[in-house]
Amino acid sequence: MKALSQLRWQLIAAQMLVVVVGVVVLAIAADRLGSGIFAADLRARLEGVPMAERAAVEAALLASFRKATGQALLAAGAAAAVVGLTTSVLLLRQILRPLNEIARSSQRIAEGRYDERVAVPASDELAIVATSFNQMAESLERVEQQRVALIGNVAHELRTPLTGIEGYLEGLIDGVFAPEPSVFGDMQHEVRRMRRLIDDLQTLSHVEAGQVSLHLAEVDLVELARRVVNQLRPQTITNCLELTVLPETPSLIVRADPDRLAQILLNLVGNAIRYTPEGGCITVRLGVAGAMARAEVIDTGIGIPPEELPYIFERFYRVDRSRSRASGGSGIGLTIARHLAWAMGGELTAESAGPGKGSTFTLTMPLR
Ligand code: ADP
User: If you measure from the C-alpha of residue 331 to the centroid of ligand 1, how many angstroms do you get, rounded to a whole number?
Assistant: First the structure.
């Protein structure tokens, strides 16, 4: 605010300086040039007049010329100063009002009022400033909303296993449950769920902050995919799922962190197993797409509705909350997987023809 009032006085002083310099330059020009021309003209007209008389008339007329131009310049200077002052005050008001408003609004945003916006003025340049300010305020508000939602989500996710453990403990204390290994096993299951969630949250905070440490090496994607599939194969037995790796080339060497790459594939194939009903098929197809290696995890599972597709990489987003939670899903696996893919120069996308029509998750990684 202080800076703006300083600017006001600086601009008014600059305007006045222009008027003063203009008047001084005009006065010098009138005195040097105007007087010379006037005197020469006078001399020509006074030809024939006796010398003694001529000098006196010339001096008197020159003095009167100087007086007249001086007075005219004074009047013109005063008029220019009044006009200059008025226009600069009007102009300043037009410029400073929106700037003052932006300064006040930023103060309010700094105090935590993220819904603050400024009116967009008519002037082009100021409109750009005001629009950019409003855009900045909007993204700050969005970040704040996400932060609040994140806290709510974390609290909610932690409460679920905690409520389970509390229930078992109360049952044990009241004697409703006998202290048998199965009860402790169920409690352990809930504790593990909490641990997994906390580990996932920690990984998420690292990947989102870009702080994940990568040990890049040359990795054979075909071999890695086979390893991941073999690791998860036991989980396909209960649902009689068919799980196959389909490489289009014998090997696909990519530059990536092998553990992180395995983590992404484990998440994608794990999800495919979780969301594919009995007797379904899961195929991991591997090939080349331009300068990238491509791994597609294709399933014949429950699919994803088109309106949900844009959100499934968002934190805690689950198409079917109860189904995902019942199977131990936290809704942040895909968020982590996508950030890991980005960190290694790759991309992760999802497609689905709709509910009941299966899904395809495509991971691309830069080739060696
Ligand atoms: P979750 O741990 O809940 O599986 P993810 O981040 O891995 O979390 O997945 C987010 C959501 O995306 C899931 O809850 C599910 O609704 C949907 N999803 C992920 N993979 C598939 C798939 N292969 N088929 C259908 N839906 C899927």
Answer: 7
| Ligand 1 mutation pick, 204, 283, 324, max ligand atoms within 8 A of CB | 324
Confirm if 132 and 120 have CB atoms less than 8 A apart: no
For the record, the structure tokens of 356 come out as: 């009941």
Q: What gap in Å lies between CA 119 and CA 88, rounded to an integer?
A: 23
359 versus 89: which is more confidently predicted?
359
Alpha carbon of 367 to ligand 1 centroid (Å): 27
Which secondary-structure segment (H or E) carries 244? strand 242-247
318 touches ligand 1 (CB under 6 Å)? yes
Instruction: Give the atom of ligand 1 at the shortest distance from the alpha carbon of 297.
Output: 23
Max mean pLDDT range (75-79, 94-98, 265-269): 265-269
Q: What would the two tokens of residue 239 be?
A: 């649902």
Domain chopping of the chain, boundaries: 2-113, 127-208, 217-366
Tens of pLDDT along 265-276?
Answer: 999 999 999 999
* C-alpha separations of 363 from 237, 267, 312, 339 in Å: 26, 12, 15, 12
The residue whose CB lies within 8 Å of the most ligand 1 atoms, and thus the one to mutate among 298, 312, 321, 323, is 312
Q: Whose CA is nearest to atom 21 of ligand 1?
A: 271
CA of 271 to the centre of ligand 1 (A): 6
What CATH code is assigned to 127-208?
1.10.287.130
pTM, full prediction: 0.70
Indicate the residue type of 10: Q
Which tokens is 79 given? Answer: 């008029």
Assess whether the C-beta atom of 270 lies below 6 angstroms from ligand 1: no
Is the pLDDT at 251 greater than 70? The verdict is: yes
Predicted local distance difference test score (pLDDT) of residue 264: 97
Q: Which CATH architecture has domain 217-366?
A: 2-Layer Sandwich (3.30)
Evaluate whether 127-208 and 217-366 have a shared fold: no
